């Protein structure tokens, strides 16, 4: 794997986290420093985004915190967060509006966002900076397993055939295809044959392959 890719990705994530932290209460800095050694940058970026949503919800949608500024919240305010607030948060994120756009969250997304809030509350409870771990009082939303969608053999053949021949492409698309078809065919074959993740594919070098 190309380590430079993953190093660059981590550096980008760190910078994104720092930008989001500017919009979070100051005590969140302790949380991010505390979990840094045991989490990936991608996990912490998820925490940052989810906590931003949570604190904005508290000051705009709950009577307890309504009208306060997120940046003015202090660690003692976490003692005012109740199990009901967390249940309201889960209901809220099912459907809400951001910058004029409607955002919906399914079961998995709601679980992840609740997990981020729980992680923060658990951290400060273990540090004895808040009185209780209210996150432990909330049940995790049940996730209904979705059916795995698999290509039929003829569908796999069709995808690879299009990548190889450029069938049904526009004139402009065929102009690009002439230069990329070998790469595209190889990448699609790799995806279809191994189930590799996109990030793993991006990080691959020729040295990672054993052609024997």
Description:
It is a single chain. The protein is mostly helical and 212 residues long. The protein folds into two domains: 13-137, no CATH class; 153-208, no CATH class. Helices cover 57% and strands 4% of the residues. The chain has eight helices and two strands, in the order ααααββαααα. A two-stranded antiparallel sheet has the order 1-2. A hairpin with a 2-residue loop joins β1 (95-98) and β2 (101-104). The protein is elongated, with a radius of gyration of 23 Å.
- For the largest sheet, list the strands in their spatial order: 1-2
* Total domain modules: 2
Number of helices: 8
Cα separation of the termini: 18 Å
Low-confidence segments: none
Secondary structure elements and their pairing?
Layout: H1 3-21, H2 28-35, H3 41-61, H4 83-92, E1 95-98, E2 101-104, H5 107-126, H6 153-165, H7 171-194, H8 198-202
Antiparallel strand pairs: 1-2
Helix pairs in contact: 1-3, 3-5, 6-7
């Amino acid at each position: 794997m190309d380590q430079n890719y993953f190093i660059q990705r981590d550096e980008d994530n760190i910078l994104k986290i720092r930008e989001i932290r500017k919009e979070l209460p100051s005590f969140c800095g302790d949380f991010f420093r505390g979990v840094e050694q045991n989490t990936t940058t991608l996990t912490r970026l998820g925490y940052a985004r989810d906590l931003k949503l949570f604190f904005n919800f508290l000051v705009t949608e709950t009577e307890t915190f309504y009208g306060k500024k997120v940046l003015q919240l202090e660690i003692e305010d976490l003692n005012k967060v109740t199990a009901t607030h967390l249940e309201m948060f889960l209901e809220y994120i099912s459907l809400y509006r951001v910058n004029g756009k409607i955002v919906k969250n399914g079961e998995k997304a709601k679980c992840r966002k609740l997990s981020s809030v729980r992680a923060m509350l658990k951290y400060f409870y273990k540090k004895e900076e808040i009185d209780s771990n209210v996150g432990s009082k909330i049940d995790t939303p049940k996730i209904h397993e979705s059916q795995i969608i698999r290509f039929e053999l003829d569908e796999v053949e069709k995808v690879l055939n299009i990548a190889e021949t450029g069938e049904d492409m526009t004139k402009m698309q065929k102009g690009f295809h002439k230069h990329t078809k070998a790469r595209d065919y190889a990448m699609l074959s790799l995806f279809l044959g191994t189930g590799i993740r996109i990030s793993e594919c991006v990080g691959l070098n020729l040295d990672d392959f054993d052609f024997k």
